[in-house]
Amino acid sequence: MLELRGIRHRYGGRIVLDLEQFIVPQGASLAVVGHNGAGKSTLLRLLALLETPTEGQVLFSGAVVPPRARASLRRRVTLVEQRPVLFRGTVRENLEYGLKLRDTARTAMNGIIGDVVDRLGLAPLLNRRRHELSDGEVQRVAVARALAVRPDVLLLDEPVSSADRAAANALYQALAAERAARPLTVCIASHQLEEAYRWADSIRALADGRLSPVTPENLFRVDLPAGDGTKHVRVGGIDIAVMTDRTGPAVLAVPPTDIFVSLQPLSTSARNVFSGRVTGMSIEHRGAGVHVRADMGGVELVAAVTAEAARDLALAPGKTVVFSFKATAVQVF
């Protein structure tokens, strides 16, 4: 539905986003993850048609968005920023604002507002004003205001960064209910990987304004030495072997699916074998697998295993495990 093509976006002459292609498919629930400064917020603003890329094109439903069409299309794409701004007035008046602009009848308006209020637990807040709300409550109101106008695409920037667990769950349940009721496309930017795995159908990772070939658990900024063939690069307390002819600053990416998990070192050709303790586990969306986090010499590595393998190995926080992966599995970009 939304696509960025050939994007090079600059702030003050510095490239902050460099994407050959980025697609948000219709009906998707997509998470964009990455560390602070990776370019997530800029990406969402381009998708929301709030900024024009320095170079490249924005496409909507396969067609390049011309400047004259941006205003009308913005009604179909709604962005809730990390620190949303509420309008003057009460929470109810904020929820009514977009519906009034669309000349929604009062009866229909009351029904829509009642629905989003129930889904996000906002009933006690309806008569409050901005200064009477916490940051987490402001985020929930902003998401409810966005859902009320029924956009085709909803973009959310760190929507649960100020929320407690109950509020975060209410938000994701509301999004799931909305997507079940109609073909809503959702794209969320987040640095909380566990949340992304829990709800997203697809995850993309940004690092320094570029798409990473893997999700960002195992991304390491390094300085590659000169020479060809296998190189050993110090990352924290471990040395990672990588096959590359590149030199200088780079990012190493180790796909979690390429890491083999065992309880003892195995006789394999893997050049990278590390022992450590499990620090956490998270179940992927739809229960397809388990992501296992382990501390390896002060470096957190994440491996992806099947639920069956996790049970067979009796994986649990505190358990000693061995992670193995080949030097050729390490991607460099």
Structural domains: how many = 2
Described by its quaternary structure, the protein is: single chain
Per CATH, the superfamily of the largest domain is: P-loop containing nucleotide triphosphate hydrolases
User: What's the total helix number?
Assistant: 8
Helix content: 10-25%
Query: How much of the residues is beta strand, in percent?
Result: 35-45%
Task: Report, as a whole number of angstroms, the end-to-end distance.
Answer: 28 Å
Based on CA atoms alone, the radius of gyration comes out at 22 Å
Topology:
Elements lengths: L1 E10 L2 E11 L4 E5 L6 H8 L7 E6 L2 E2 L5 H4 L3 E4 L10 H11 L4 H15 L14 H14 L4 E5 L7 H17 L3 E6 L2 H7 L2 E6 L2 E2 L7 E6 L5 E6 L2 E6 L4 E6 L6 E3 L9 E12 L6 E7 L2 E7 L1 H6 L7 E6 L5 E2 L1
Parallel strand pairs: 3-8, 3-9, 6-7, 7-8
Antiparallel strand pairs: 1-2, 1-4, 4-5, 9-10, 11-14, 12-13, 14-20, 15-19, 16-17, 16-19, 17-18
What key attributes describe this structure?
8 helices; single chain; OB fold (Dihydrolipoamide Acetyltransferase, E2P); 35% strand; alpha+beta; 6-stranded mixed beta sheet; Rossmann fold
Q: Summary?
A:
By secondary structure, the chain is an alpha+beta fold. The chain contains eight helices and 20 strands.
Description:
By secondary structure, the chain is of the alpha+beta class. The protein is 25% helix and 35% strand. α3 runs parallel beside α5 (135-148) and α4 (106-120) packs across α5. The protein is globular, with a radius of gyration of 22 Å. The two termini are 28 Å apart. The model has no long low-confidence stretch (mean pLDDT 90).
